[in-house]
Amino acid sequence: MSIHWRILLGMALGVLAGVALQFWTEASVLGGFQVVGEAGQALEISAVEAGGPGDKAGLKPGMRILDASADEGDLAPLQDGGEAFESWLRGHSNKQRIRLVLEGNQELSVILELDPECARARWLAPFAAGADIFMRLLRMLIVPLILTSITTGVAGIAGGREFGRLGAKTLGYYISTSFMAALVGLMIVNLLQPGVGAELGLPVPEDFRPGEGRSFLDILQRMIPSNVFGALSDNGNMLQIILFSLLFGFFIGRSKEPHRSRMRGLFESAFEIMMGLAGFVLKTIPYGVFVLVAKVVGETGFDVFRPLLFYMLVVASALLIHSVVVLPLYLRIVGGISPLAWFRAMVPALMTAFSTSSSAVTLPVTMETVEKRGKVSNKITSFTLPLGATINMDGTALYECVGVIFLSQYYASVGGFDLSVADQLFVVMTALLASIGAAGIPSAGLVMMLAILQGLGLPIEGAALLLAIDRPLDMMRTAVNIWSDSCGAAIIGKSEGDSVLQTLAEPAGEPPGESAVDS
Fold it and tell me: Which of 43, 154, 199, 366 has the least CB density, counted as fewest CB within 10 Å?
């Protein structure tokens, strides 16, 4: 059974386990604060539990409650006294938001939590521990995998003898389309805002400290590591690690022999070892998804799936816009090529990419399709397409931006912070830079998303939750990656004098390239 089917099975079993906990275990919630007051009097907060929901919301002893309501709009019986209010509070569910209006028209929201002494909390504890172990394994991979992957990929590109005018054109196209893909994702996710008000059931850690007040200049300054080894020891300095890896790989590729081959061999060996370790860890993903989904469903019920389905729709919409608007404009304006004719010629490669979810597996089909049906020379395809499979990840860059902003919107709504424009530009830059050389990483989308979340100071548990619904999105973004690679080969081939989509004699009634035999 393939890994994707095992992940889906893990999600299904996790849902069943969570539902069983919902129905067969007793649960009680707490707000982490106590009130005093007789019937007919205003209620006053008498005590706030340190680290509890009330403390996280900013409640202090002595505050007076003027009004209180739950998400559904049911009003608290404030005039019936403190005991009636606390009984009303306990009648709500875990992770439910209680809105309080205090003196001075100050409004605060308290998110209820499970009483750690109740039966459901005790049953959920092993699932929570398993989810924590799984996330620690993923964190362990981030820095060494990205360092070795990007360094190896860039060293190979910079050291290639063919890297000249053709290489500059190819890199320029790939970087610009990945940047445009990230911007499209950023625009759509901010327009539709799937994470605002989402009920994902993901807790905000007590030590949660997102980046605050960062300007774009601050981000540029923080890109330069003052201590490389210090940056490597902290997952939060991901942009510094990526920039160092890019520069280090470039100068390895441009160095003289025997140093170049020795250093390339060293990092290639390290990357192969990390690939083995990553393969071992990624085999645990179905089990990690199982415990994480069981924990979330056991705590919050089925409410978690509504925002996830909305998120899938947002990603699919953004991928569609990039595929049918942005890339065709590149073909028409830059290359002077008919987008519809090129799409018809590329159908075999796109269908292979969609079904396999692998750019590397699709590469032979892509090369044959671009050469035989698209009439691009082997000189162009043999350079641009393998390079595209290494560094061109339009669909993945878009997916990273949408996924990270979606989770950021969720944490902003429950954690009380705003994701600034500079932070969103940080997401775009990191997704763009990390895509260079990251295509060789197994489950590159997950690893890159973890890296960006760590760089923003956000919890990474949400990325594993998104992984449970990743299979259809993986198929779509792989097809987008291949579509972008093929468009790049066509544009660059046309600029180098190839007669793209043209043959000496086309059979009547057939579109360009149809006479070629499909692979």
Answer: 199
Query: Are residues 15 and 297 in contact, defined by beta-carbon separation less than 8 angstroms?
Result: yes
Mean pLDDT of 33-60: 78
Can you tell me whether residue 436 is helix, strand or coil?
coil
DSSP string, 181-220: HHHHHHHHHHHH-TTTT----PPPPTT-----S--HHHHH
What the block records as the tokens of 65 is 């409650």
Here the tokens at position 309 are: 């389905």
Rounded Cα distance between 312 and 255, Å, is 45
Q: Which residues pair with 64 in a beta bridge?
A: 44
What's the DSSP call for residue 303? G
Picking from 81-95, 460-474, 484-498, which range would have the lowest pLDDT averaged per residue?
81-95
- What global pTM score does this model have? 0.74
pLDDT tens for 402-420 read 998 998 888 877 765 667 7
d(CA 177, CA 488): 9
- What count of Cα atoms within 13 Å lies in the side-chain half-sphere of residue 289? 25
How far out from the chain centre does Cα 329 lie? Answer: 26
List, in order of start, the domains of the chain with CATH numbers.
32-112 (2.30.42.10), 125-495 (1.10.3860.10)
pLDDT at 511 over 60: no
Helix 470-495 × helix 394-415 angle, to 10°: 140
